[in-house]
Amino acid sequence: MFPSALATRLSISSKLLTAAMIASLLITVPGCKKDKGVEADKPAAEMYADAKRYLNGQNWSRAINQYQRLSTRYPFGRYTEQAQLELAYAYHKGGRPDAALSTADRFIRTYPSHPNVDYAYYLRGLTNYDRRVGFMERMMPSRVRDRDQTAARESFRDFDELIRRFPDSRYAPDARQRMVFLRNNLSFYELDVARYYLRRKAYVASANRARYAIETYPGTPETAGALEILYISYTEMGLPELAEDTMKILALNYPDHPLVTGESKQGFFSRMWPWGKD
Question: Where are the domains of the chain?
Fold first, then answer.
């Protein structure tokens, strides 16, 4: 084949390919515009109903996408307000705690007088609770108290704020129950740290930690142990008056405590650390 003929055929093929591509675009682009037009023309009520359907069906990712579209298309209005609250819940259930917290915070700042703002406070506490405590409680209950307690403290503060602001909220009873659990675990954690310092004869640190547990989480099952650690720490530091005052408090509130009755058959350190000193 001669070069000129080959060039002619290549030119014709190129023109045919270009024409085919243009025809394809003419077919697909109107369709895309039509689809976007349908979504853009949807009323807020319909978009909200779609998102709510996904939420009720526990399809968290599609619910999140639909709530986001609704908020973008209709940035104001009652559907958008409720959508933000339900978006925070979808984030929480979909395993995106940071997004859930930021959305709940934004809702509280934007709609402080909303009739359902108490749920935003509750959801914030619930997200922090499940972020660490809830997972560990389900998977390894015996290890809950050994973990970093930052999220637990934040959850406790969130629930406490809910109860202070909305004592009659429908979510307050559940928040109170969770706070009891959190208080007990936080108290145990502080006492565990106090024992650690005591075993290493860091008596100032052990006394401070035990006193913090007593003052911050009074009335928990660990209070007696905290007073015991405080008494031992003061005694070892050569502070007999403080040690005596601590013993009086221990005897008044826990008269059957082994340290009060003197009936303990084991030494303090062997009870605190049964595997031996380290």
Answer: 40-95
